[in-house]
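Example 3.2
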Amino acid sequence: MSGGTLIALAADEVIMSEYAVLGPVDPQLGEYPAASIVRAAHQKPIAEVDDKTLILADQAEKALAQMRAEVGNLLGGKYPAEKAAELAKLMTSGTWTHDFPITYARAKELELHVRSDMPENVLRLMQLYPQPMRRQPSVEYTPIPYRTDRRSPVAGGSS
């Protein structure tokens, strides 16, 4: 959803059907949300955080700042500066989980430029290109770390 949302945010206006959703565009570093990495690193005294976690948190902070700036740029000129900054922070800062659906109603509440009067011709065009049916979720969280040493990159200890 996040990739499609970035494309949608670049548009002047988005037309959403009743089943369409947008999603947060918060950066993900490997299997972890950047905002969660930063929070985890700041919850312990720095002496108790290992070097790999500190490096990961540094990268996460950069990713959050970069994405917020990019979304702000996408929204700039379409919204007042204060509203663009508010939306950029909301969409990128880990307010929701990465798979959180932003429905049409929620997008309206957020004051995104969306409307729901989907032209019939667009719906007919979409019917010509059916999406394959999947038995897997579009966003999948793997419960185990990808690292081979089985230690969490946000675990305590020093390097």
